[in-house]
Amino acid sequence: MSVLLFIVLFTALGGVLSVLAAAVFLLLPEAQQKNVLPHGISFAIGALLTGAFCGLIPHAFEEVQPQQLSTLSATILAGILGFFVLEKLLVWRHCHSNACEAHGEDSHDHHHGHSHGAQAGHRPAGMFIILGDGIHNFVDGVLIGAAFLTDVQLGIVTSLAVAAHEIPQEVGDFAILLHSGYRRGEALFYNILASLTTVIGGVLAYFSLGDLHDVLPYFLTLAASSFIYIAVADLIPSLHQKTDIKTSLQQIGFILAGVVLILVMQGIAHRFESVA
């Protein structure tokens, strides 16, 4: 199977399946949603961190000369700081347009589609979510494409890690669209449409990065910094809201499940690649 076909297949499946999983999740009773979503977040943390530290970073380091390792490490640091600044700018813009500080609103929760976002009730808010999701998915597609251009096994693992953190995000996006006046069918359609930008990003990466082998390790480290930042800055803090022993053990268990899945898929992908 050609690399391009792998890219198209996994970017399309990952994007569409994450949207469909989010849609199915929203069909559950609200009580079950509250029970299931934290487990999905814990699972995503394990998948993202394992994809970064056991997949993307080692492969990036293997692709460069020893004297370039410090530059790659600096790229990871710059990526994490860059994502912090970007999110800070987005939060600042949101607060100034919605006066969240004046009302004591947690803008981070609003961004992920919790109850504060449900009060907006304006179609423009929904369109902003669709546009932002499309851009985010496009970048994910570029990173997945860069991973596949480096190694098919790495591409498969990266696609799984992206899908793991996309599902909780898509749930939030779906909820915002519904509360912005969109019918369920419309919300599903626009979410799937936005998810297809992942394919566009992957295909663009294939044709634009295919001849730029020296650039690929830097894309891999940027992808790793993205995974690390999402897990550490966005997802882990939400787990600290509950500190009882039972919940903490469940969180650890699902994080480990995410770790194990990525490691197992790495082994399966490696064997599949060897046979192919």
From TrEMBL:
Membrane topology: Multi-pass membrane protein
Keywords: Membrane, Transmembrane, Transmembrane helix
Residues making up the signal peptide according to the UniProt record: none
Chief place of localization: membrane
Highest taxon in the source lineage: Bacteria
InterPro entries for the chain: ZIP
Stretches that traverse the bilayer: 6-28, 40-61, 67-86, 188-209, 215-236, 248-269
Compartments it resides in: Membrane
Protein name: ZIP family metal transporter
Species name: Methylomonas aurea
